Amino acid sequence: MTDQIPSAPQPTGPTSEEPASKTELKRQVREAKAVAKANRSWPARHKFLTGVGVAGVLAGGIAVANSGGEEPAVAEQPAAVAEVGTAVDVTDSAAAGSEQNTDSTKGAESEEAAAKDTSTSEEPAEEANEPTETTSQANAHESAETYLNTLAFSKSGLEKQLKFDGYSGKDAAYAVDAVDADWNEQAAKSAETYLDTMAFSKSGLEKQLEHDGFTAKQASHGVDAVDADWNEQAAKSAQNYLDTMSFSRSGLIDQLTFDGYTADQAAHGADAVGL
Questions:
Q1: Is the model's pTM score more than 0.85?
Q2: Range(s) within the chain of domains with CATH label 1.10.10
Q3: In 76-229, alpha helices (H)
Q4: Distance CA 163, CA 92 (A)
């Protein structure tokens, strides 16, 4: 019986797959570095995903190295992790700079919008200062001012005068309103002017002012404002009549009464002229 030759013992040390495991680990580390570098330009919101991906690759590499019992491959991990940290820091800085630029841009846009709003809000004020009179209205207005600076007019009397001068009804009405006159004051001036040229009874002067276009209240105000001596006015009227024609005492008294003087004032007038 032939003796069997014992088979050679199988090696128990590292297998031929170990070199492949080291190579794989280095390749993974290089890929992790490449991923970290590529992720530097990502927005800040991808920092967490980048860190997780690189950490996963490193964890796989460490597991493979530990299974082969070789420690040199593990020594390269800190460099890879350091680069991941650097990439994250750069990404943070880039994101912060981007946010600052965005804030600056928004601030500039807000100031520009505020400036536009201010310029827009000022436009109505400029428009309000623009003249609103037409040329014909301005001329009528100027004419009305000139008349009131030289003579006393009622509102309706001034409007009639402007129409007589050729202004349209609308322009004349506009000008009379535009001068914003005190018509009571105008009535007083008109009453004073009449008494400076001729004699009037109180009621006769009121009628004259109403004839000139003043209202009854304005005429009454004007007559009261002159504070005339109506006995003196009766005497002046009596003298004016006698300067033009002859009168008996009773006839003169009747005429003065017709002109609006009271009986006492008429009698005073007749007495003043010697009748």
A1: no
A2: 135-181, 182-227, 229-275
A3: 77-128, 135-150, 155-164, 169-178, 183-197, 202-211, 216-226
A4: 84
